[in-house]
Amino acid sequence: MKLIRTEDAKGCILCHDITQIIKDEKKGPVFRKGHVVTEEDIPVLLSVGKEHLYVWEKEEGMLHEDEGAEILRKICQGGSAEEAAFDGVEKTFRYMKATEAKEGKIELISDVDGLFKVNSDALRAVNRFGQMMIATRHGNTEVKAGDKLAGTRIIPLVIEEKKMQDVEKAAMELTGGEPVLKILPFQKKKAAVVTTGSEVYKGRIRDTFTPVLFEKLSKYDVEIIGHKVCDDDHEMVTMTIQHFLEQGADIVLCTGGMSVDPDDRTPLAIKNTGADIVTYGAPVLPGAMFMLAYTKEKKAILGLPGCVMYAKRTIFDIVLPRILADDDIAKEELADLGEGGLCLGCPVCTYPNCGFGK
Hints:
21 strands, 6-stranded mixed sheet, Molybdenum Cofactor Biosythetic Enzyme, Chain A, single chain, 3 domains, 11 helices, alpha+beta, Molybdopterin biosynthesis moea protein, domain 2, 26% helix
């Protein structure tokens, strides 16, 4: 840094905060470290007694914190500064908005309702470089337009250009050139419900499961195209599932008959549709007896255990946003849910702002 006359400081970058004290009115920084001095700032600086200023002296191979922050934004969001539409306040690109760099900080905000994705390996790699950071919310979680997704920061006032080039290269190698963060917008879907169980089919008890599903689906752009109650006859259930698929259902939700009792035949019925079984069972409580299958057209068939009917949050709440965002779920990913897969049944449910499913 170097010391210069305040009158000569236009376009220079402050190396320290400038504090203003007005008795009984104000005490605090009038300009922050990293601020770029404008012509209009000079009288203000002189009014607080600053005849001289310490400013950043541009060095070859060094970047200002805001320049480094722009590289972190690109790593997270993708797109160059030119590709991201800039309206003077935010850069919008790939369903995210990025705030203008300030004091080495940029925040990313969702521009749509959708599923938030994080490349965890790349995120860890960036944060291990030091002198910089990216903090995000958990990946594979639902977000709404306006939700904050991540915050980035360059720690020092200046940072080596080569270090920023190295971190960008490392992140892109781990992501295959894709951004570290993504949003998959929710898609319009058609769904059908197949209720199984002789007790419901023969009218011995009322179906209290289907209304729960209708309520959960109503929060999304999902059209219910059909609902049918079936006996404990696996052939009948298979035919009903296939009928709804032929009618254009993207998702078929099967309720009941998911246990291991002799007359619980829903898993067999789903298997006999010819769909690819991803899992029967998940390390999540509530929701262990969950089944997921995909047809060759990537339509989803779900076998939902009874807990979905009475528990506030279950495996269904974890997987539904991913299905609505066309984010295929692999068996390995479901296995990873074991850590965090235990719902604590809090008296006041704060999901998804808790550890369940993360």
